[in-house]
Amino acid sequence: MRKLLTLGLLMIAVSVPTVNAETLTVIIENVKTNGGHIMLRVLAGQQEFKGDEEAITSIKQRAIAGKVSFTISNLPAGEYGVQIMHDSNSNGKLDSNLVGMPTEPWAFSNNAAGNFGPPKWDDVKFDLSGTITQSISFNH
Fold it and tell me: 109-117: long-range contacts at Cβ-Cβ below 8 A with a sequence spacing of 24 or more?
């Protein structure tokens, strides 16, 4: 009876689907100053990219001139995008001038850039499967 119970439990354990835990590392290059914070949002779809839904995760850490890196583990495999900004005055938002142009550094995954506004989701998105690294540079 005990062997039958053990065999039954083993069969159940084998038949339960597992969720892959993927890891994303984001390296941000060209951070100009030590002041303020680097704010990163991991976006799991176009609705999060547009701001209609909250990002799957948001992280903030002190800015260090040069390179800053983030590692996010335990993400399900799928399509993602990354949005970053250097909140140099630590006010929690991307500051802009009178015509709406950002006055603080910002960037997106794939180093995507838009024309007269943010880039399109198709330029920002990438597939996360396994462990990948996105190197993003502040050029703005």
Answer: 109/26, 109/80, 109/81, 109/82, 109/83, 109/134, 109/136, 110/134, 111/136, 111/137, 111/139, 113/139, 113/140
**Domains of the chain, first to last:** 20-137 (2.60.40.10)
DSSP for residue 42: E
Cα angle, residue 132 at apex, residues 126 and 138 outer, rounded to 5°: 70
Sign of CA dihedral 6, 12, 13, 15: positive
Which helix or strand (DSSP H or E) is residue 8 part of? helix 2-15
Helix, strand, coil percentages, rounded to 5, for the chain: 20, 40, 40
Spatial distance between the Cα atoms of 107 and 105, rounded to a whole number of angstroms: 7
Reported residue count of the chain is 140
Instruction: Give the tens place of pLDDT for each residue, 11-39.
Output: 444 444 445 689 999 999 999 999 999 99
What is the pTM (predicted TM-score) of this model? 0.81
